[in-house]
Design a protein that fits this description.
By secondary structure, the protein is mostly beta strands. It is built from 1 helix and 27 strands. An 8-stranded mixed β-sheet has the order 1-14-15-18-25-20-23-2, with no helix packed on it. A 7-stranded antiparallel β-sheet has the order 3-4-5-12-7-10-13, with no helix packed on it. The two termini are 34 Å apart. Bound molecules: cobalt (II) ion (CO).
Length: 294
């Protein structure tokens, strides 16, 4: 795919950082060590996003057992691999190998049971999994998934020299790999050379956050070190401006979306609107009815 050069956008009143959050070290699946960056207590503030996990290790013992068969219902998972590979298999008969730099978008909808098993590449495995909520009316939709190879992800370079990979939404006149009407998710992976800045216009009603995974960024007056989530304020702003440190490349995720403002009821891998719907999901899973018939 051609990498387009795009003029820099203009933001007059950039958002400030409302709060910096340090991720929580945890393990999930069959013992995969990861950092939960967007935790349960931030689901309302960062609606429509439910979770962001960062995983990255050069020790296969930290991840090689992966995530054996487990269910999901009611939301979407977006897995972005920075290094290594992830083998995916689900109850609808889909199977895929997500390679380094690639992205998998999975809509669990009414339900899938799948496994996600990492495979090391030169010992290293690193990536992110973001959970995006579905509106109440779509929670029981037909499951869907697609793997995007690195070369299939839309990418552009700004005049300032920032490389942007557009996983979801629209930016600088480019449309991302996936778009969603209800939540308008914007998901950008930005590589900013030392001393550069990136401006992204964004309506004030969108909840937005930045996760720096390499280097150090500045947003407004606030320095944002690596491994920090910066929740961006919504007040009277028309966009986001991030600047890279002067002494090295900064890499970060910029993620934003339109809040659903619907009740959230979560039990592990099920995210619905009410406790009754969670009970139904558990019963459907136990009795083998979770998987929607095609
Ligand atoms: Co899963």
């Amino acid at each position: 795919m051609d990498t387009k050069t795009r003029p820099d956008e203009v933001v007059n009143r950039p958002r400030d950082v409302e709060r910096l959050v340090i991720g929580k070290e945890t393990s999930d699946g069959a013992g995969v060590r990861l950092t939960r960056v967007l935790t349960h207590d931030l689901q309302r503030r960062l609606d429509p996003f439910l979770m962001l996990d960062a995983f990255g290790s050069d020790d296969p013992d930290d991840y090689i057992a992966g995530f054996p068969d487990h269910p999901h219902r009611g939301f979407e998972t977006i897995t972005y691999m920075m290094a290594g590979r992830m083998r995916h298999r689900d109850s609808a008969g889909h199977e895929g190998l997500l390679e380094s730099g690639g992205m998998q978008w999975m809509t669990a909808g009414a339900g899938v049971i799948h496994s996600e098993i990492p495979q090391q590449h030169e010992g290293l495995m690193a990536g992110f999994q973001l959970w995006l909520n579905l509106p109440a009316r779509d929670k029981l939709c037909t499951p869907w998934y697609r793997d995007f190879a690195a070369a299939e992800l839309p990418r552009f370079i700004t005049e300032a020299g920032v490389t942007a990979t557009l996983i979801a939404g629209e930016s600088h006149g480019v449309t991302g790999a996936v778009t969603r009407e209800a939540t308008s998710p914007l998901y950008l992976d930005l590589h900013l050379p030392a001393g550069t800045r990136f401006a992204q216009p964004l309506p004030a009603d969108r909840n937005a956050f930045v996760y720096v995974y390499q280097g150090r960024a500045t947003i407004g007056e606030t320095g944002v070190p690596a491994q920090r989530l910066a929740i961006l304020s919504n007040d009277g702003a028309d966009g986001v401006v991030v600047s890279a440190a002067a002494d090295g490349e900064t890499r970060l995720l910029l993620i934003a979306g339109k809040p659903l403002e619907e009740p959230i009821a979560q039990y592990g891998p099920f995210v619905m609107n009410t406790q009754e719907e969670i009970n139904q999901a558990l019963a459907d899973y136990r009795e083998g009815r979770l998987v929607a018939s095609a």
